[in-house]
Amino acid sequence: MAADRRIVIENCAIATVDGNDTEYASGHVVLAGNRIESLGAGKAPEGLENVARRIDATGHLVTPGLINTHHHFYQWITRGLATDHNLFDWLVALYPVWARIDEPMVYAAAQGSLAMMARGGVTTAMDHHYVFPQGSGDLSGAIIRAARETGVRFTLARGSMDRSVKDGGLPPDFAVETLDGALAATEETVRQHHDASFDAMIQVAVAPCSPFSVSTELLRDGAELARRLGVRLHTHGSETVEEEKFCHELFGMGPTDYFESTGWLGEDVWMAHCVHMNDSDIAAFARTKTGVAHCPSSNARLAAGIARVPDMLRAGVPVGLGVDGTASNESGELHTELRNALLINRLGAHREAALNARQALRLGTYGGAQVLGRAAETGSLEPGKLADLVLWKMDTLAHASIADPVTALVFGAAAPVTASFVNGRQIVEHGRLLTVDGDAIARSTRDEAQRLARIAAQ
């Protein structure tokens, strides 16, 4: 939409998730082009020019769009497998299947992952893709193409692995890259696709997979590469007790100390999971402003444990939410993670004081923007920020009897998305994707899942 064209949204409850957690029981939001121009209580100002559209949002809650900080899109076509495994056994079962992916499979899986998230209120997504079998095609390009078509804001965490079975790792030998090959391909992906501008729709991060599948050299050189190119760094960290044991046996230190020794703590870094963190680990993350992608459903699915999110937040660690790959979170939706983050953390040491509804919403919005390095642009509803927001319908049977709309959104059933805007463009209307054909994507993901299963069985 042209910069001087306005969309006016009125008569809605608003949770801004700004620094003061400002909320309005009945208010308005004015979008101008791809920015939030103004918002506040009551009706929009009189006399606004160039109003292209007015939305009566009676019965709705408006929030910032949800931000996903950890995912593996390719896993959309391996959902429902190894359902009773812990992380290590799950990886052993699935790596031989994942090693057979190719470009059409990855494109279809990315379409499915993105469509499911967008339909459920995600406006900024990311994908940590680290499986690049030899001869599999342009996988990064396929993922980015799917993100552009869906219309979400997107970060590709260009992953890599160079420790295969022959080196004591888990991936098959033909599914990993060489050290030099991984670094060169990552640099080329950044140079080709990364946009550093304020309203960037596509960004790229450097993302070696994990200590299990990556050499110390790839971690260290990857960190140097990211900082030379001015992009962020992402990896898995402290996910299981097995990782803790592995790091002590191989490197003589725990995961956090190992990451710090390779340059992997800092305000430009975020790590997925961080389940098994002691007080010293949390203090190191807080001191360096290293971010965390909390994935409560996946952690539960793989019996990894309960991350110490309340302690991280109290220490000042940036924390966002992640779907994680849909082979370990088959729903593929981020809005369910608001509820699961709150409920699962209440099973931990802090019990009912662990998290409340507004803290959970902050994790899924502003916290995610912090973790992805985009808190100046998105994650809260404030004048001058990007027009990424969601209208949740709160007056149906599922929520109408709950007085507080934020409580209803987090504690209640998944709320219908009446409208979702990204960069000022509407991409969802009444739960239906406007940018892509959801039914066609369902068919293509089913076909590619079946094709992968046939290939893996040979």
TrEMBL record:
Report the domain of life of the source organism. Bacteria
Annotated GO MF terms: 8-oxoguanine deaminase activity
Key words, A-Z: Hydrolase
Residues covered by the Amidohydrolase-related domain: 61-425
Q: Which EC class, in a word?
A: hydrolase
One Pfam family named in its UniProt record: Amidohydro_1
EC assignment: the record states 3.5.4.32
Against NCBIfam families, the record matches this protein to: PRK08203.1
Q: Supply the name of the protein.
A: 8-oxoguanine deaminase
Q: Which organism is it from?
A: Streptomyces bullii
